[in-house]
Each structure stands twice: as structure tokens, then as C-alpha cells.
Amino acid sequence: MEEKWVIIFYAQGQIEAFIIKGKLESNGIPVVLKQEAIGKIYGLTLDGLGEVKVLVPESYRDKAIKILKESK
Predict the structure, then answer these.
(1) Could you read off the pLDDT of 26-56 as tens digits, one per residue?
(2) How many domains, the chain?
(3) CATH no. for residue 33?
(4) Which of 16, 29, 50, 59 could covalently link to 45 via disulfide, CB atoms 3.0 to 4.6 Å apart?
């Protein structure tokens, strides 16, 4: 049975998303980034458009959130 992926963070653009992805992956947490096509093409971040969703497997959610809180 495949594990459910959950959103743990909404990044305001690709740079922020890739920084968070790197932080989590360096701690052994698998990460997937999802973004609307328009944001990728034009680099827009406006009222949710261009926003990047950071997803992790549900079993890693608590660990991932803890890492993000500690790094602020």
C-alpha cells in the first residue's frame, strides 16, 4: 500500500522551496515539490499563483515540521 503524501509548507517561490527541500532531504526525509505550471513558466507568486507546495510522506510529517521550526 502506497503511503499518503501531505503538504507541510507553502513556499513563496522555487528558491524557498528548494532550500526547504534540501534541508529535509539532508535529514533523510523524502520530499516532493508541486507547483502550478504558470508559476514555473513565468516565475510568478501572486495570491497563491506560483506558490510551491512542499509534500512529505505522512509518516515523516512530524519530524519534517520539527526540523522546519528549529531552522527558523
Answers:
(1) 999 999 999 876 655 565 555 556 689 999 9
(2) 1
(3) 3.30.70.1530
(4) 50
Q: Which helix (H) or strand (E) holds 10?
A: strand 5-11
DSSP state of 38: H
Q: Which helix (H) or strand (E) holds 68?
A: helix 61-70
Per-residue confidence at 2, pLDDT binned at 50, 70, 90?
confident
Among all chains, which residue has been given the C-alpha cell 528558491? 15
**6: its cell numbers:** 501531505
What's the predicted TM-score (pTM) here? 0.81
Residue 6 burial (CB < 10 Å; 0-12/13-18/19+)?
A: middle
Instruction: Map residue 58 onto helix, strand or coil.
Output: helix
Amino acid at 65: I
Angle at which helices 14-25 and 61-70 cross, to 10°: 110
